[in-house]
Structures are given as structure tokens and as C-alpha cells.
Design brief:
Length: about 650
């Protein structure tokens, strides 16, 4: 049984767990948590009203003359002590969210680049270049000559080139070479082509200091520039280097949900965002000595399971089972079956420590950037990774041998196909010798596929977990829109059974026909939140393939983060908008209505040749906004009318 530790407010104003989530496994564990008197983020959200002034971004606390609170109902009725108006205050607040989110992805990417450098220089022996073909492709994409060069020499040149993504103070980041020319022209005209991520984040934080930039349009330019340094810089480097070191994903069948835990095995969960820890843990749990130690303790073996984004990477790359997304990370501990949870960075709730203590489960922090009061820290070092991961496995085995908590594992797993990297999508559409995005473009042009949507992002306790994601995607595929997924959204849809080829029966006639011909689901899982960069590359390939315009802003595509909650999500949204994509968010949006700054984000940026923001709480409303935008782009391209289908015989083929 869990320790007697009644959490204040755990009854959550009488709400039933079924009102929190559509996930049956999470519901079961929340019911158990309430019986055990254990509090989770769902309870805290139900008992803590969101600040209405902060939600509208109508407050400023950037100096000690405040905090200053403006009235969102009368936004221009007063100004802050320094004279800052609502547009300056909002744009500063929005900018700092983008800066923090971009810093998180940039630091992740730089960590991956550091590991890559040490692998190439021979300082790290436990990792190696697993995908030399991807190494060549990435090197060539940034202008590195690869003919008659060794893998080692190419890798060294690539490191030196990609380091500019972070440290460069002038010029354009390396992956600007991947941006469609017309889109890049728009960025140059607006003065928002990123230099180096460190320069852009520092610039943005400086100009949002009290008494610096006080013109919302000028602040917004740097917001876009910083966000682009994330999407086309930090995040893209993280994805590409992870693929080079650990392998580029290709479709793999794997299970998600809490039934992935096994009562008769030592259960270890890895939760976070950087794949290094998880890759080493995969080696440790398969070490024969560790397996024998687990069996000696009475277990059948060691069961490794992922959560959140590093879990999504391992799901796509290796088929490692995934236990649940962000809002299930506390609930999984309530099973009593988790012998150890190891975390690194990002989206790690401090509340995990209290829940782990209630069930005598180990919670280990491993990264110097993330320590948690009440959790044991075991430092992870890339040069000696197994020292950390072996220690975690040994302690997990000890906990299994001495389990005291009552174990209750929801008997629910959902199988799906994951791992659709943009390279595999290209191969899937054309094969080894004719890999191409043309079949996708052609089916968009002929109307079988209406357009493409990226549905990504977090889960948020302010709305019913997974519900908006699932209902939105169902409506999109019903209207012949192919959906790409990353992060927690991907896990929500996998639990709903939509990442299987059989799910095509829910799609419209055109999309279903294409999915059945190719043998793919109507919803393609691409990986973690940094892997949104795969969507950028895929969209750029669509432009280069031809027939759908000359810039990202002309494509019949849209994006959504229906249950977003973190600053990273705002940075992601802004780099898609600045790239030219209509992007809708749900739950709430950190701006005040009827202000010039809001009008700029929701309309003005599109007039400058970029994309624009959208907002809707209801999934049907959000779907209609996205469909309407895709239809508008189809009309502008002149492909809004279905083409007549003509059967072509061999004589016609020869004539062509």
C-alpha cells in the first residue's frame, strides 16, 4: 500500500477522474490515487484557478516598480508605471516565452552536438555513428563536399559547420540552406534570418529588459528571428545529430499505455527529452549480468519503458514501449509497479518526487540542469554513461526485491506504427530508386488528399487529457487531411488507435484510398517535440517537388498544438508561423483581445508573407479553421476543383 500521506485538496472539488482524461489507464490510476490520498497535477489544476490577468498577458513584472496590472477588458485604459502600454507588455511577455522555449531546444541541440564532437574525436567510446548515409545527406545539405573523404573527416567538418548554429554572431545559420528560396527571401526582407541561436536569444532577452525595445512590431521581428533559430537551428540539429548517432527512424510496431508495465519484471521508466540517457539505459537493461541479477531477485527480467519525448524517440527508433504522455507521468507511479523512474530535462513535474515517495519508487535525476528536492541525483556522464545507468538498474532491482506498494497495472495497451522520419516518407512514396514527394504532391493536386496538418504538442490539465487531440485529428482525416504528429500528441493518438493502417477507415474516401495503396496510417508519428523539424524539412521537400507553390506560405498545410502548456510550444508555434504555416493553439493564448499586438500575430504576419496564429478551444472549431485555411491555399493555387481521373494506357506512357 502507499504510505499514509493524505494530500491536501486531493478530492479536487468532488470531480471524478473521468472528467480529467479520456485515457482509461490514467483514469484507473487517478481513482486509485484518490483512494490512496495521493495528489497529482490534475488535482492541483482543479483546485487552483488560473490567474485571469496573467492568462491575458496583461501584467508586467520585469522591474521592481511593478508588478503592473492592466485591464484586459479595457486594454488601452492605462499603462504601466514606466509608461509601457498593453502592446509593449504583451510582446515582451510573449518574447520571453519564445526565448525560454528556444533556449530549451537550443541547449538540447548543443548537448547533442557536444556528444557528436566527442564521438568524432574518439573521447566517447560508448556511442558511434550509426547512420553514415544520414551523415552524408546532412553534410551535403549544408554545402560540405563529401567526395573521396572519410566518414571521420566529413563528421569533423559537419561538427564545425553546425557549431555556427549556436555561436555565430553574423551571417545566416547553416540550415538556412534548406529553406525554400522564396521563403528565405521573405525572411531576408523582414530582417529575421537567424544568425546564431545564442546571439538571437541574448538579443531578445536584452530588448525585453525594462526601458529597451518598446515597439511591439520591432520586438516581434526579433521574436520571429529567435524562434527560427530554434526550428531551423537548435531543434533541427538535435534531430539530425540524434539520427546520425543512434539511427534514423523507420516504421516500427510498438505498444503504448500503462499495460506496458509488467508486475513480474523490474520496471524502469526513462522520462525526459535527450536520447543519450535512454540509449545507455537500453544497453544496461540488456546486459546479461543485469538480467541475471534481476532474475536472482525473483523477477523474470528487466522491462524498459519510455514516457514523454525521449520515450517517443525510443519508440520511433527502437520500438521501446511507451507508457504515456506528460499528464500521465505521475499516474504511472500510482501503479506501484515502477521500480525506478530516471529523468533528464524538460517537462519533469516536481510533483513526481512526492508521488514516488508515496509508493516507495525511486526517482532519479541525472542531468546537472535538473535537480528535484526529494529525488536522488545520479550524474549522467556521456564519457562513462553506463556508470549512471547501471547504478539505476541495480537500485531498481533492489526496489523490486523489496516492493511494499500494492501493485495495480491497468491491463491496457494500444499497438501502432511509429517512426515516420521525413526520409522514410520519401522512400515510402517512391521506393529506393524513385524516392520522392511527388506522389504526395500529386495526390494533393488531384484532390484525393486535401492537405497536410501537423498536430503536435503537450497535454494540459486545464482541458480533458487527450480529448482535443483525438477529436481534432478525427475531424481532419475525415476531411482527407493527412496528419503528422510529434511529442505527447502522438501518444494521445496512439492510445486512440489512430496510428495503425486500419485507422484509414475513419478517413475520407480520398485519403483512405491513398493510405490503402501505400499501406500507411492516416496519422504518421514522427517522434519527439524537437522532431517538429522533420515537419519543416518535409514541407520544404513538398515545395521543392513542385506544383504547390514556391514558398512554405503557399502550401495547403496547417499546424496545431491543441493542448499546449510550455514555453517550448510557443517557440515551436512561432517558428512555424514565421516559416509560413497557419498554426492554431488551444486551451488559452497569452495575448489580450482587441490589441494591436494580437492583430499582428493573427493577421499582420500573414500580410508580410509569413503564416499566422489561430486560437480555438473546441476541437471542431479548430478543425474548421485549419480546413478553411487549407481550402484557401488550394484555391490560391488553382487546385480547388477536382481533376478528372484519366486512365493512361501503355501507348500514352510511351508518348509521354
Amino acid at each position: 500500500m502507499a504510505k499514509e500521506k493524505k494530500a491536501e485538496g486531493s478530492q479536487s472539488k468532488g470531480l471524478s477522474p473521468k472528467e480529467y482524461t479520456t485515457c482509461k489507464a490514467t483514469t484507473q490510476m487517478l481513482e486509485k490515487a484518490q483512494k490512496d490520498g495521493v495528489e497529482t497535477a490534475f488535482d492541483r489544476a482543479a483546485n487552483m484557478k488560473a490567474c485571469p490577468i496573467g492568462a491575458d498577458s496583461a501584467c508586467c513584472k520585469h522591474c521592481s516598480m511593478g508588478p503592473c496590472r492592466l485591464n484586459a477588458k479595457d486594454p488601452y485604459g492605462k499603462v504601466g508605471v514606466c509608461g509601457a502600454d498593453i502592446d509593449t507588455i504583451q510582446s515582451r511577455n510573449f518574447a520571453r516565452m519564445v526565448a525560454a522555449g528556444a533556449a530549451a531546444h537550443t541547449d538540447h541541440g548543443m548537448s547533442m552536438l557536444d556528444v557528436f564532437r566527442e564521438v568524432v574525436n574518439g573521447e566517447i567510446k560508448d556511442y558511434s555513428i550509426k547512420d553514415p548515409v544520414k551523415l552524408l545527406d546532412v553534410a551535403q545539405s549544408v554545402g560540405i563536399e563529401t567526395e573521396e573523404k572519410s566518414t571521420q573527416d566529413i563528421a569533423k567538418e559537419l561538427y564545425q559547420e553546425l557549431e555556427r548554429t549556436y555561436t555565430q554572431v553574423e551571417g545566416e545559420i547553416p540550415f538556412a540552406s534548406r529553406v525554400p528560396e522564396k521563403t528565405l527571401e521573405t525572411w531576408r526582407k523582414q530582417g529575421i534570418v537567424p544568425r546564431g541561436a545564442m546571439r538571437e536569444i541574448m538579443d531578445l532577452m536584452h530588448r525585453t529588459h525594462m526601458g529597451v525595445d518598446q515597439q511591439y512590431e520591432n520586438i516581434t521581428k526579433q521574436i520571429s528571428r529567435t524562434a527560427l533559430s530554434d526550428g531551423w537551428g537548435g531543434s533541427m540539429v538535435a534531430t539530425e545529430i540524434s539520427d546520425i548517432l543512434f539511427g534514423t527512424p523507420s516504421p516500427v510496431q510498438a505498444d503504448v499505455n500503462m499495460g506496458s508495465l509488467k508486475e513480474d519484471m523490474v520496471n524502469i521508466i526513462v522520462h525526459g527529452h535527450e536520447p543519450n540517457l535512454f540509449e545507455s539505459m537500453l544497453v544496461s537493461v540488456n546486459d546479461p549480468a543485469m538480467v541475471q541479477a534481476a532474475q536472482d531477485a525473483g523477477a523474470k527480467g528487466i522491462n524498459l519503458v519510455g514516457m514523454c519525448c525521449s520515450g517517443a524517440e525510443m519508440l520511433c527508433r527502437h520500438g521501446v514501449p511507451h507508457a504515456g504522455n506528460f499528464m500521465s507521468t505521475e499516474s504511472i507511479l500510482v501503479t506501484g509497479a515502477v521500480d525506478a523512474m530516471a529523468v533528464d530535462v524538460q517537462c519533469i513535474k516536481q510533483g513526481l518526487a512526492a508521488v514516488a515517495k508515496c509508493y516507495d519508487s525511486y526517482l532519479f535525476t541525472t542531468n546537472p540542469r535538473c535537480h528535484i528536492e526529494g529525488a536522488e541525483h545520479i550524474q549522467f556522464e556521456e564519457r562513462t554513461p553506463k556508470e549512471c545507468t547501471d547504478d539505476i538498474v541495480i537500485k531498481a532491482i533492489s526496489r523490486y526485491k523489496n516492493r511494499t506498494a500494492r501493485v495495480e497495472i491497468p491491463n491496457i495497451t494500444n499497438s501502432g506504427i511509429h517512426g515516420f522520419s521525413h526520409e522514410y516518407i520519401k522512400y515510402m512514396l517512391g521506393g529506393s530508386f524513385r524516392s520522392s514527394y511527388w506522389p504526395l504532391n500529386d495526390n494533393i493536386i488531384n484532390g484525393r488528399i486535401r492537405g497536410v496538418a501537423g498536430v503536435v504538442g503537450c497535454t494540459n490539465p486545464r482541458v480533458k487529457q487527450d480529448w482535443v487531440h483525438v477529436e481534432l485529428v478525427k475531424e481532419l482525416i475525415k476531411n482527407d487531411i493527412l496528419v503528422l504528429q510529434t511529442g505527447c500528441s502522438q501518444i494521445a493518438l496512439a492510445k486512440a488507435g489512430l496510428l495503425t493502417p486500419e485507422a484509414a477507415y475513419l478517413a475520407g474516401d480520398g485519403l483512405r484510398e491513398v493510405c490503402e495503396a501505400v499501406g500507411c496510417p492516416p496519422v504518421l508519428g514522427l517522434g519527439s517535440c524537437v522532431d517538429n523539424s522533420r515537419i519543416l524539412i518535409a514541407a520544404s521537400e513538398m515545395v521543392r517537388e513542385g506544383g504547390l507553390g514556391d514558398s512554405l506560405a503557399e502550401l495547403p498545410v496547417a499546424g496545431a498544438a491543441p493542448e499546449w502548456m510550455s514555453e517550448k510550444a510557443i517557440s515551436i508555434g512561432q517558428y512555424f508561423v514565421a516559416s509560413g504555416v497557419f498554426t492554431a493553439f488551444g486551451v488559452t493564448f497569452p495575448v489580450t483581445d482587441n490589441t494591436k499586438f494580437r492583430d499582428l500575430l493573427f493577421d499582420g504576419l500573414e500580410q508580410q508573407g509569413m503564416g499566422k496564429w489561430g486560437f480555438a478551444v473546441d476541437p471542431q472549431d479548430m478543425a474548421q479553421m485549419m480546413i478553411g485555411h487549407i481550402d484557401k491555399k488550394r484555391q490560391e493555387l488553382g487546385i480547388d476543383k477536382a481533376r478528372e481521373r484519366v486512365l493512361v494506357d501503355m501507348a500514352d506512357r510511351r508518348a509521354a
